[in-house]
Amino acid sequence: MQSLRRSAGATVQDCGEAIETKHEETCKVKPVGECIDAALAACRPAQGMRSYFGPEGDPVRIDWLVLSDGQGGCKLVMVEDRTADPLAPRKPSVQTCEGFQWKSHESIPSCEAPTAESCHSAANLEE
Length: 127
What we know:
Structural class: alpha+beta
Helix content: 10-25%
Strand order of the largest sheet: 1-2-3-4-5-8
C-alpha cells in the first residue's frame, strides 16, 4: 500500500477517511467517494479510505487511489483488506477499476456509498 501511495506523487489530494462504527448514523463515505470520483474525472492523483464492518461484523478497509496510467490518463486503484475475517483471503486484494457506481448504503438510510465498477486484478501493483 505504501508503494502505491508513493507512486501517486507528492501532490496527491487527500480525500479523507470514512471510518464507520458498527452503528454509524452519519453518511461519511459519500464525500470521500465524491472526492475520488472528481479526481478521477479530472485525472489528478488522489487517495481516500473507507473502514466499516461487514455483514458478519468483521472489519473491512477499502483504499481508493487515483494514479497515472503511464499513458497520459488515470486509473482508479482499489485495495480491499478483509484479512480480519477468518474466512477471507490472507492478503488485501488490489484491483484497477474504471470508476464508481453509487448504491444505497448498507445500513444508513438516505446515504449513498460508492462501489467500484469494471474492476480487474492488478497483481503487478501489489507489494
